Each structure stands twice: as structure tokens, then as C-alpha cells.
Amino acid sequence: MTQIVLQFGFIVFFNNIFPYSVVTFLVVNYFRLKMFASELETRRRELPSIYFGVGIYTNLLDWMSYLGFFVNVLFTYLKSESVQHQL
Asked: Whose C-alpha in 13, 53, 63, 71 is 20 to 30 A from the C-alpha of 41?
């Protein structure tokens, strides 16, 4: 779960700088899913547990979403043509 939250953070904060990060993470997660599927075929599954929501990551995801908005606005402002002429 931590890796998924980190990927979400990279996408939210740095999507303006590296727009292909979404495609990169989709490809990586596709291969991870294939790896886990083959692992399930050879291993015995664990007993299921009941979880409600994403637990401790809820607040972190909320803050990353809000902060990511302002970071993207700042990056877009700094990359705009009118600001480049003023600097």
C-alpha cells in the first residue's frame, strides 16, 4: 500500500514536470500485478482479514491532494510564458 501512495504522490506533485509518469506507473503496476498473480498460483493464500477504508493513509492522501493542487498551480505559473519574460 505504501508504494501505491508514493506513486500517487509522484503523480500529484510532479505531473507537470514529468507527464509520462502516469504511463510509467501503469506499466510498472501491470507487471507487478502479473507477478502477484503468478505468485498466487504457486503459493497458498493467507486467511482474509476485514479492513475498512485505507486506514492511516486517508489523511495522508487528503493532504497530498490539497498540497498537490497548489504545487501544480505553482509549477504551471512558473513555466508560463508571461512569467519567463518578467524574470
From this structure: 53
